[in-house]
Write a structure and sequence with these properties.
This protein is α/β, with parallel strands linked by helices. The protein folds into 2 domains: 121 residues, no CATH class; 243 residues, Purple Acid Phosphatase, chain A, domain 2. Helix content is 41%, strand content 20%. The strands form 3 sheets. Strands 1-14-2-3-4-5 form a 6-stranded mixed β-sheet. A hairpin with a 2-residue loop joins strand 6 and strand 7. It is globular. It binds fe (ii) ion. The site of fe (ii) ion has 7 residues, from loops.
Length: 378
């Protein structure tokens, strides 16, 4: 049984994070026991995160526990790297000295204050400005063999709504209005209507029922419907409002006289056997489109014959930083498909940033979006 992963890059990341943690804790100049406690807790969570990169080890734990541990270990990773960066800049920045001019002392004091307050300022921006600053993202998706009648067909996608104390119904209503203004042919919802069982799922469904499109509203469930034990409820209540939630089901829709097959699956847990059995939904002679909350299924979807997959789940990283022209986020540790359009042979996936937030009620570098997808013949 293999409880550690076999990719060297996983070990390199954890080694780097533990080194950063040691450095940051040393620079704290805390008491011996506080330092030991921080080091033990941080390193422990980083090692658990490393072990969870092994599918064998992850499969031994209850799914919710594995996901919670994974999130905690990522927070330890971000805390260690961020803490070390702040400590390093704090150290190399010149300190104001008595022989410095008043002007220079002021600049140095301001720079040091800026470093200490930057995490607070960034969080404030993410919570109060970017969190509900919805954008419409338009994207062209090439589909091989798409008939000329279906060329230009438009789907509007909403995902990861997480209607909760951190996203009010009024804020969400703005996203619905934005989606309706796009006048798409079909509206698609790809899961995570709520975060927990206490959240207002009925209000979310009522807002989704306001979506207007000739093809109506179809969708799939996310992992938070599972956590909240709302899978059957969302499908049942959704159906009463005209929202068809597909659970290992497919539906053929006709636009401009041409059929397309839409298949929806429940949240796919991290596995080496994604989408087991879904190949039976793939119909020859028409475009096959998959709705899967988890984008990690993309390779399996392409292999099974799905031309295009719509996903969410990552929130586009929710909090991302650009380092050396690479967007770095926690989600990148989970999946290579964090945000945007990806291709595998002739197959494509679009991963939307979605609407809401989970964990930290903030977005940084990953503003919420309503996606407008245009199918294009190639
Ligand atoms: Fe989500």
């Amino acid at each position: 049984m293999r409880i550690f992963p076999n990719r060297w890059s996983d070990y390199a990341v954890v080694f780097l994070a533990i080194s950063a943690l040691v450095y940051a804790v040393r620079r704290l100049h805390a008491s011996k026991w506080t330092s030991r406690l921080l080091l033990a807790a941080g390193s422990g969570m980083l090692l658990v995160g490393l072990m969870l990169r092994s599918l064998t080890f992850a499969a031994m734990l209850p799914v919710r526990l594995a996901e919670m541990l994974r999130m905690t270990s990522f927070l330890a990773l971000v805390g260690a790297l961020g803490g070390a960066a702040v400590a390093f800049i704090w150290r190399i920045l010149p300190r104001p000295k008595p022989d410095h001019s008043p002007e220079r002392r002021r600049v140095l004091l301001a720079a040091r204050a800026a470093i200490l307050t930057s995490p607070v300022v960034a969080t404030g921006y993410g919570v109060f400005i970017q969190r509900d600053n919805f954008k419409m993202r338009e994207v062209n998706v090439p589909i091989k063999g798409l008939s000329k009648e279906l060329d230009g067909l438009r789907l509007v996608q909403l995902s990861d709504i997480h209607l909760s104390p951190f996203l009010s119904e009024r804020e969400f209503a703005r996203a619905i209005d934005m989606a309706n203004e796009a006048r798409a042919d079909l509206a698609v919802v790809t899961g995570d209507l709520i975060t927990s069982s206490k959240d207002p799922v009925d209000a979310c469904i009522q807002q989704l029922a306001r979506l207007k499109a000739p093809g109506g509203v179809i969708g799939c469930l996310g992992n938070h419907e599972v956590y909240a034990k709302r899978e059957e409820y969302v499908q049942f209540r959704g159906a009463r409002h005209g929202i068809r939630i597909l659970r290992d089901q497919s539906e053929i829709l006709t636009f401009r006289g041409q059929p397309l097959c839409f298949t929806g699956v429940d949240y796919q847990y991290m596995s080496s056997d994604y989408l087991a059995g879904t190949e039976r939904h793939v119909r020859p002679g028409m475009p096959n489109i998959l709705l899967s909350h988890n984008p990690d299924v993309f390779r399996a979807a392409a292999a099974k014959g799905f031309d295009f997959t719509l996903s969410g789940h990552t929130h586009g990283g929710q909090i991302t930083f650009e380092i050396l022209h690479q967007n770095v986020s926690i989600a990148r540790f989970y999946t290579p498909y964090v945000y945007g359009l990806y291709r595998e042979g002739d197959a494509s996936i679009y991963v939307t940033r979605g609407i809401g937030t989970v964990g930290v009620p903030a977005r940084l570098g990953a503003p919420p979006e309503v996606a407008l997808i245009r199918l294009c013949a190639i």
